[in-house]
Amino acid sequence: MGEQRGETTCVDTLLASSLDSVDGAEDIVLKIAEEVGFEQEDLHKIGMAVRETVVNAVVHGNRYSAHKKVRLSVAKAWNRIAVTVADEGNGFDLSSLPDPLAEENLLQQSGRGILLIRAFVDDYQMRRLSPVGTEVKLIKYLPDSNRQPKGF
Amino acid sequence: MSIQLTIRQVGDVNVIDVAGRITLGEGASTLRESLRDLVIKSNKRILLNLGDVSYIDSSGIGELVSGFTSVANQGGTLKLLGLTKRVKDLLQITKLYTVFEVFDDEAAAVRSFS
Description:
The complex is a heterodimer of chains A (152) and B (114). By secondary structure, chain A is of the alpha+beta class. Chain A has one domain (8-141): Histidine kinase-like ATPase, C-terminal domain (Heat Shock Protein 90, 2-Layer Sandwich), CATH 3.30.565.10. Chain A contains 3 helices and 5 strands. Chain A has helices at residues 20-36, 40-61, 113-120; strands spanning 8-16, 69-77, 80-86, 123-128, 134-141. Chain A has a 5-stranded antiparallel β-sheet, covered by helices on one side. In chain A, a hairpin with a 2-residue loop joins strand 2 and strand 3 (80-86). In chain A, helix 1 (20-36) runs antiparallel to helix 2 and helix 2 runs antiparallel to helix 3. Chain B has one domain (4-112): Transcription Regulator spoIIAA. Chain B is globular. By secondary structure, chain B is α/β, with parallel strands linked by helices. Chains A and B meet through helix 2 and helix 3 of A and helix 2 and helix 3 of B.
């Protein structure tokens, strides 16, 4: 899940495992998303997907540990933004998560984060890191991806 | 803007006007405590006005669900009022539109409790 053809990495930074990092990550990503040319509604969706992903990394991955960091990488291309978030947690099996849309789970208090992330981006990839950690990559394309490259 | 809650009584319905962000941390916990207080005081008819909510995340949605079940477990009802398009979208994505009773008009919402 490294940098793809045509993408330029804009940010590669380490964040503390605290909720303050959620706001910081959203700010960083939205600034780059604006440069790519996303408009308000898509910016909202990108921001929300990033917040949920970083919350998962901080809360479920690193469990707020002061000794663990969240790595945030943001790359852009003329028609997309790619956001990678990696934690240092023990990882989890995506297929083992309960389906939040199943009738019996509708009234559960939690478990909707990944559902929302997937609803708001075009591509969601997750992989286990070695020796520890989980890396999630989000990709969002401009609605009109046929337009001419800008700034590349 | 963090969350702000204003509770008012309309007939025998407690209307909670929520403004700001319902997100993991202060926003979600403030809403949780407010709903818990109302449930403890046996207020069984609660209308949550989300018209001025600018942002809600999965934790915020979780608090809405938790509030709904807490009130229902006490024999009460929690309904939603004034959803923005973004909140409506979230409830549709999460299928919670099938769980909550949702209103655009406050008077109609209050009448629905009787």
